[in-house]
Amino acid sequence: MQDQDDIILIHVTVNGTPHRLLVESRRTLLDMLHDDLGLTGTHTGCEHGNCGACTILFDGQTVRSCLMFAVQANSHEVMTVEGLAHGGQMHPLQQAFWEQQGLQCGFCTPGFLMTAYELLKKNPTPSDEEIRTALSGNICRCTGYQHIVDAVRAAAQTMASASVTAPSGTPA
Ligand code: FES
Ligand code: FES
């Protein structure tokens, strides 16, 4: 029987939208996002912190959502892969993964996208070695990784040229 003390009210902002949720104290952040909020882009892989399929941004930093409890997100900001696109336009990273064939089955892709997003925020012009190091905690069983590296490099170039050509006052 469910003990009412195990149900906790949390307030969390996900992809810019505030949510008020009742969650079990043992519920993972991954399950809350995937099942309670229907954000199915965050994938369940190993559930042990090894594969990176569940990677999200938590207050701007990548975390494994399978290793966090939902209650830990109380009063915090979360970004999932669904937060990348805007106005029906894919993020340059998504576009580059598509164009460079950076995915095959796509199961790992949301985790790679979020990890690459964090990398390019911190380092907009990474070398291939820096890209490989940043992505080394994410596992892909399909692509052989080279196309993923190519995609991140291409996205970095697109984002760099967009920021050069954007009129002043345009948000990044
Ligand atoms: S499902 Fe979280 S790291 Fe694999
Ligand atoms: S594209 Fe299939 S696991 Fe990466």
Describe the fold and architecture.
- The chain is an alpha+beta fold and 172 residues long.
- It folds into 2 domains: 4-83, Ubiquitin-like (UB roll) (Roll), CATH 3.10.20.30; 92-162, DNA polymerase, domain 1 (Orthogonal Bundle), CATH 1.10.150.
- It is 33% helix and 16% strand.
- It has 5 helices and 5 strands, in the order ββαβββαααα.
- A 5-stranded mixed beta sheet has the order 2-1-5-3-4, covered by helices on one side.
- A hairpin with a 2-residue loop joins β1 (7-14) and β2.
- The longest helix is centred in the C-terminal third of the chain and has 20 residues, at 146-165.
- It is globular and about 50 Å long.
- It starts with 6 loop residues before the first strand and ends in a 7-residue tail after the last helix.
- Mean pLDDT is 94; it is low at 168-172.
- The protein binds FE2/S2 (inorganic) cluster (FES) (2 copies).
Structural class: alpha+beta
* Ligand kinds: FE2/S2 (inorganic) cluster
- Count of extended strands: 5
Any idea of the CATH topology of the largest domain? Answer: Ubiquitin-like (UB roll)
What proportion of the residues is helical, as a percent range?
25-40%
Give the CATH architecture of the largest domain. Roll
What is the general shape? globular
Number of helices: 5
Please summarize the sheet with the most strands.
5 strands, mixed
Strand residue percentage: 15-25%
* Low-confidence parts: 168-172
Helices and strands, in order, run as EEHEEEHHHH
